[in-house]
Design goal:
Layout: H1 2-11, H2 40-91, H3 97-123, H4 143-147, H5 155-163, H6 167-217
Helix pairs in contact: 2-3, 2-6, 3-6
Keywords: Antiviral defense, Cell membrane, Membrane, Nucleotide-binding, Transmembrane, Transmembrane helix
Region (Disordered): 1-32
InterPro entries: PycTM_dom
Length: 218
């Protein structure tokens, strides 16, 4: 009996399978492939992260503009002290009239460039918003309409609007706000770049003015 069983096992060998090889069927021509499933929670998380990054860029632009304004304050106070000494030297007759005109021209150009750079830096802080769509509800990011609540009695109405807010509406408002913040961020950095460019040229004329006054006064 044992020999017959052994013969049966030899005659019917079991096929070997290789777990390392996985065969995939190629899609047939004309067949419609099913779209990949995307987790809505991951999508919403990515949208929120994008919104947070945009807010950080806006804050960074305001911080850099504040540093530019600080440089302007230090620079103008330093140059004005030099110009006071220069004026005294001109009044006393220690400086030739032609030299006084040259240094005065440098100072005027410096002051003009600094004013332009200063105004661009101030514009970074100006509040910017896109036109408000008053057909929308007054929740989440619609700041203009939220502030415009006429009285404290409207709190129940606001609660009803929040309560009726669906997940799709919330995603839509986040995306709309990202678009608004992107527009604001673009304008802020455009003004900041212009302010820094004018500041660099201002520093060159400030240095020329300082060297001229130092040479002729001494």
């Amino acid at each position: 009996m044992s020999k017959k069983k052994k013969n049966k096992k030899k005659n019917n060998p079991q096929p070997k399978t290789s777990p390392a090889i996985v065969q995939t069927e190629k899609p047939k021509a004309g067949s419609v492939q099913q779209p990949l499933h995307v987790d809505t929670d991951d999508t919403f998380h990515a949208v929120v992260k994008t919104y947070e990054h945009t807010q950080k860029w806006i804050t960074l632009a305001d911080t850099k503009s504040g540093l530019v304004l600080t440089v302007h304050g230090v620079l103008i106070s330093f140059i004005l002290q030099e110009m006071v000494l220069w004026k005294k030297a001109v009044v006393a007759g220690d400086v030739a009239l032609e030299t006084a005109y040259v240094v005065g021209g440098l100072f005027v150009v410096y002051l003009t460039l600094q004013i332009i750079s200063f105004l661009y830096a101030i514009r970074v802080f100006f509040p910017r918003t896109l036109p408000v769509d008053y057909r929308q509800t007054r929740h989440v990011f619609n700041v203009g309409m939220t502030i415009a609540f006429p009285s404290m009695d409207d709190k129940e109405k606001l609660w009803q609007e929040y309560k009726a807010l669906s997940e799709e509406d919330l995603k839509k408002e986040y995306v709309y706000q990202i678009h608004t913040d992107g527009h604001v961020c673009s304008q802020k950095y455009s003004c900041l770049r212009s302010s820094i460019k004018y500041l660099l040229v201002t520093l060159c004329f400030a240095f020329a003015t300082f060297v001229s006054t130092a040479i002729f006064i001494s």
